[in-house]
């Protein structure tokens, strides 16, 4: 997800990472099938502001890197691992 451009959207395919971080991301609504969009990116690229399930969420690049998304309208073969 960390590679999506500002204004870009995608569907969550998988969430990886250490168990504690993975659980935290899932609890924040980043579950497979969820549509996310990048609202803005800080000047140095960290953090990212996302829109998820109707609310705004800020993630560090390392956290966003753990979430694999397929660009909106793409099939799973075009998935973007972060």
Characterization of the model:
The protein has 82 residues and is of the alpha+beta class. The protein has one domain (9-73): Ferrous iron transport protein A (FeoA) (SH3 type barrels, Roll). It is 17% helix and 35% strand. It is globular and about 30 Å long. The termini are close together. The relative contact order is 0.29.
Short description:
The chain has 82 residues and is of the alpha+beta class. It contains 2 helices and 5 strands; from the N terminus they run βαβββαβ. The chain has a single domain, classed as Ferrous iron transport protein A (FeoA) (SH3 type barrels, Roll), CATH 2.30.30.
The spatial strand order of the largest sheet comes to 4-3-2-1-5
Give the termini separation. 5 Å
- Average pLDDT metric: 87
- Report the CATH C-level class: Mainly Beta
Q: Low-confidence parts lasting 5 or more residues at pLDDT below 50?
A: none
Please name the CATH topology.
Answer: SH3 type barrels
CATH architectural type: Roll
Question: Notable features of this structure?
Answer:
SH3 type barrels; 82 residues; 35% strand; 2 helices; alpha+beta
Write the layout of secondary structure elements.
Elements: E1 9-15, H1 19-27, E2 35-41, E3 48-52, E4 55-59, H2 61-65, E5 67-71
Antiparallel strand pairs: 1-2, 1-5, 2-3, 3-4
